[in-house]
Amino acid sequence: MPKTKELVKKKFQLAVVTLDLKFGKQITDEARKRGIEAKLYESLDRVPLSTDAVVVRRNEYDEVLSEKMFVANLQSSPRSIVDKAIETGYRKKKVAKATVVIDPGKKTGAAYFADDILLRTETYFSNEPLIDDVAEFFSNHPEAQQLVLVGEGAPDFRQTLIEQLVEKIPGLSTENIITVPERNSSKLAGGKDEIAATIISWTRRKQKRI
């Protein structure tokens, strides 16, 4: 069973190099929400060698000077930029499988994976922001296999969510959606490493489809 890479345990270090303090704060704030050690620098030569990934802003740096470096578009959300920076830090040049694990209910938990890398967990109190985030996540991984794993519990919430996901996300169909036992998706939404590894292994097996 594969081990899921968990950022807090690894002490992932992110540097943001920019003269745009507003942009820098948005990225470092998003990273720190995930337990990542994130620092802002004015120039690349100040970044410690131990740093896992470096985010720079397009128009300030247009050339990739290191395999640790990610050039961010200003149109991208801080959430997407930090996702891509983490993938860069793990030298994940191409993601084969983009997976979102959802525990539906009045308070919905979700975990976002790039292959075996747990990028983040989120909590939602309505479906609209969740659907927007899933759509954005998949749009950032257009060449990856896109999967949604949904907990079997809360059937009314689950069915409504599935219908909305298929309706509102281009290219997503019920073939991309798999139901899994709720006890596992619930623990995953809480960020448990062992359950995350189990969920990842399940994506390689034939599961009950919607």
From TrEMBL:
Q: Which domain of life is it from?
A: Archaea
Name of the molecule in the record: Uncharacterized protein
What is the protein's species of origin? Answer: Caldiarchaeum subterraneum
